[in-house]
Design brief:
Blueprint lengths: L34 H8 L3 H11 L1 H25 L11 H5 L3 E9 L4 E6 L4 H7 L8 E5 L2 E3 L1 H10 L5 E10 L2 E9 L5 E3 H7 L3 E3 L10 H20 L9 H11 L1 H18 L1
Helix pairs in contact: 7-8
Length: about 280
């Protein structure tokens, strides 16, 4: 039965659905919190995670810290050795010789025993300034390893080397106060010459056994081959002591060594001596 509407009845509200709670409009003046801040509050705190990890693995952290400290001490000790000025062969550590370390020096003079060289250490601003207070002064006696110098070779060395000239010497052996080394000098720019090889290639010396190295070691045969090749170059080109005398020089030497000629010379000297009387 249909209901009749009269003028006095209120308007119909049956067709209006109630508004959902989530869709309610915010009141005017109400503060809206951004969703990003809520996400940050809900998300994990990075600092808290790191702190928790360190607390759980404190032993590992301590071990790493100790390892880094030891590594720093080792690096510092090596730096001190590299920046130490060696004033005698005894001051040089054994591992330097075993590892064939190459050092820098400055020539002072050439003697019958070898080269007197002042060691120039690596310069580090802080460490070097502290060590300069107690570094002693002295010269290293350096010999050319694997080379037997002739008289002409010593003269040639004096002509080639100048005081205060910088050189590099590679340690091979220590014998008392002397060091057997491979000596390198700069010829300008990036070009350097090994004096051991240069002397042999010019014929100013003979190859000699390389003391301090084992005969079956690789480095011994490598150095021996280099020195031998330098000596063979001098022999092929007839340089220095390998220079072949000319025909007149050979005749003169044969005359000087002839016993008959020597007897005649002595006889004439005897005659001249008695005639003057």
């Amino acid at each position: 039965m249909e209901r009749r509407l009269y003028k006095d009845d209120p308007p119909a509200l049956a067709t209006q659905e109630p508004m959902a709670v989530g869709a309610m409009r915010p009141e005017k003046g109400a503060r809206q919190e951004p969703e990003e801040e809520e996400g940050e509050q809900r998300g994990p705190n990075f600092i808290a995670i790191v702190s928790g990890f360190l607390d759980k693995h404190m032993n590992i952290v301590r071990a790493v810290s100790t390892g880094l400290a030891l590594a720093g001490v080792i690096v510092l000790a090596r730096s001190i050795r590299l920046t130490t000025r060696f004033s005698s062969a005894v001051d040089i550590p054994v591992e330097f010789i075993e590892k064939r370390v190459k050092l820098r020096g400055k020539i002072h003079r050439l003697t019958e025993e070898g080269l007197l060289v002042e060691h120039i250490p690596i310069h580090l601003p802080l460490i070097s300034s502290l060590q300069a207070r107690w570094n002693s002064k002295g010269l290293l006696l350096i010999r050319l390893a694997g080379v037997e110098l002739t008289h002409d070779g010593k003269v040639w060395l004096k002509e080639q080397l100048t005081p205060s000239q910088t050189l590099w010497f590679k340690l091979l052996r220590r014998e008392n106060s002397a060091l057997d080394c491979l000596v390198l000098i700069n010829r300008g720019g990036f070009f350097s010459v090994c004096l051991n090889e240069e002397i042999l290639s010019q014929g100013f010396g003979r190859i000699a056994p390389i003391e301090g190295l084992q005969l079956d070691s690789r480095i011994y045969w490598k150095l021996h081959r280099r020195l031998l090749q330098a000596e063979l170059r001098a022999q092929r080109k007839g340089r220095g002591l390998w220079k072949e005398p000319s025909r007149w020089e050979r005749i003169s030497e044969n005359i000087k060594d002839n016993k008959i000629i020597q007897s005649l010379k002595n006889f004439f000297k005897w005659i001249v001596f008695h005639v003057k009387k």
